[in-house]
Amino acid sequence: MALFDEVGYWSEVKLEIVRKYAQAYSKILRASGLHHVYIDAFSGPGLHISKGSGGFIPGSPLNALNVQPPFEEYYFIDIEQRKVDALAEIVGDRSDVHVLQGDCNERLLKDVFPKVRYKDYRRGLCFLDPYGLSLSWDVIKAAGALETLDIFLNFPLADMNRNVLRRIPEDVDPQQRQRMNRFWGDESWRDAAYSRAHDLFGEYDEKASNEAIAGAFRKRLTDVAGFAHVPEPMPMRNSRKAVVYYLFSASHNKTAAKIAKDIFDKYRERGL
Predict the structure, then answer these.
(1) 36: Cβ contacts below 8 Å, ≥ 6 apart
(2) Lower CB count within 10 Å: N or C terminus of the chain?
(3) Adjacent-strand bridge partners of 148
(4) Taking the domains of the chain in order of start, what are their residue ranges?
(5) How far is it, in rounded angstroms, from Cα 238 to Cα 98?
(6) What does the alpha-carbon distance between residue 223 and residue 144 come to, in Å, rounded to a whole number?
């Protein structure tokens, strides 16, 4: 497997959205005097290859490191040691940057989130861009409970549709259902994804639209994870313009939510 991922147009849009938000976020937090950190749970090696140009482009860690004014600290996590090593080499010897190897579901809860507590006057921006359904709901819920974190989250719709949200739910592999339960937090996704319908042959399960499933998860971010503000997510597409995932923003701050919404709105119809 190649060290550097090849990314398309919409992935570059995603990186640009998070970069712009990080810029606004850091400026506001620096002025407030609060210690603020940037967290990337699936950091990769720091660079991507653009499908459009064929050249290297900065990934989210390097974008964050270039934000001015800078964050106080940076936490970059990846499960692959070679990607961690590559990013650490690019970053160099910096006391404000922590490059961690391991499963982010463990490292975030054990090593990172405890360093961003409300009572310590700390705040953070956390980018959760998982490889499919590899993120645990426990991380999302913990982020909401802290009340110190703004998050950007890749809602991996393509993985869900390919492996879990089949036309006949009973045909889904139990291991795939378990992956979905872990990401969603329980089995309530079935109620969001299917409804009972009727035809001449009797009852059957009818799959909900992508928009409806994303809407149910948006509600879950507020009602269960406890985020106060979750703007309508940004649909991210492949080269055929089909939605492959949704980019969510969630925060406890009304101003932060407005900034995210404004950035989303600028990009929402781009390229359609």
Answers:
(1) 25, 26, 29, 30, 71, 72, 122, 123, 124, 125
(2) N
(3) none
(4) 6-267
(5) 33
(6) 10
Q: Starting from the edge strand earliest in sequence, which strands make up the sheet with 47-50, in order?
A: 6-7, 47-50, 56-58
Cα–Cα distance, 38 to 36 (Å, whole number): 7
Question: Tokens 């606004």 belong to which residue?
Answer: 24
Whether the Cβ atoms of residue 28 and residue 34 lie closer than 8 Å to each other? no
| Contact in structure between 101 and 70 (CB atoms under 8 Å) | no
H helix count then E strand count, the chain: 10, 12
| CA-closest candidate to residue 256, choices 16, 27, 34, 63 | 27
**CATH superfamily of domain region 6-267:** Vaccinia Virus protein VP39 (3.40.50.150)
Task: Report residue 134: phi and psi, to 5°.
Answer: -100, 0
Beta strands in 79-169 (DSSP E): 97-101, 122-128, 149-155
Query: 54-81 burial string, b = 16+ CB within 10 Å, else e?
Result: eeebbbbbbbbbebeeebbbbbbbbbee
